[in-house]
Design a protein that fits this description.
By secondary structure, the protein is mostly beta strands. 4% of the residues lie in helices and 44% in strands. It has a four-stranded antiparallel sheet with strand order 1-28-27-26, with no helix packed on it. Strands 2-3-4-5 form a four-stranded antiparallel sheet, with no helix packed on it. Strands 6-7-8-9 form a four-stranded antiparallel sheet, with no helix packed on it. The N and C termini lie close together (11 Å). The relative contact order is 0.13.
Amino acid sequence: MIEFKKLIDAKALYQELDKIWVAKGMTFFTIDYNGKRVSRKYRIGGWKDRLMSWHRLPSQLLRVGIHHLLPLKNGNLLVVVKRKLYILSSEGKVLNAWSEFKGNKPVHQGVCVTPEGTIFFGEYVLNPNRDMVVKLWRSVDDGMSFEVVKTFASAEIRHIHFIKWDVYEKCLWMGTGDYGEGNRECCLYRSEDNGVTWSLIGQGSQDWRAIGVCFTEDALLWGTDAGSCSDTVHFIRMDRKTREIEVVADFEGPCHGCASYRDGRAFFSTGVEGGENELDRFSRMKLLVAGRPVNIWQLEKDMWPLILQYGVMRFPLGSDQCDRVVFTTMGLKGHGETVMIEK
């Protein structure tokens, strides 16, 4: 049985073999796998944002803080805060600030950097009336400028859920949601030309509604995000050769996190967001064993309202390069915003 321990009160944003990038409010730095800080502290944003992010409760309510961090090929850093993306040098100097996108921020796996260094950024907006155009952005100059590479017309989708590089097929995958007539907004797309063109792989069912995917040599794996609709939450396997999907198991709540590792393991987490399909108020960690997800750890939602923070376990980006499991607990009893690590 895998056991976990607390490492630090913070958010884990990106994981490397020898260090983890973490954030507290508008400050970020790296720690080693024992929790010791091994870099300088970087600060970003104005004093108002720093003040509002000082305590995790107002920070979570107002969505203030650092939401994404990705090291770039040229040594610079990409940092996303509320309604703004920054490119910083390794010394912490702001080289570019970009805010043309819609929404507060992308979802957790809504930003990626390809092995060649291309940045992709997917818009995530509430879009309740489906009257907004949603865009996928791309940068080929290390974040110094961005261009639109795909546009979804109003009423085509609600928002973009993820954009992710596939090391096996050497391509990009993108997922969208949430509903629409016949579940038309739930889509999985694939691009093999650096985002210039996209092929629609699947659509029209809540089983295509994912917040991220895990890759194996012969399949794509995901949990559905169908916690607030009449469909059951499923764990899905898509065969790479046939592109056919199979419902492998049911989940107790919407899948809010997934991560695959260099040693071949894959983990998934369910969240608590108050949806009709949730079994209870527990967030669960699952390990893929012989092709099926097995519960290995769980925590109950804390006392704070869901509007403040869903109860979730989220994995940092970069896990596919690493062997040790790291994740952040948020909105859970005794684990309000805590970096956890495999013992």
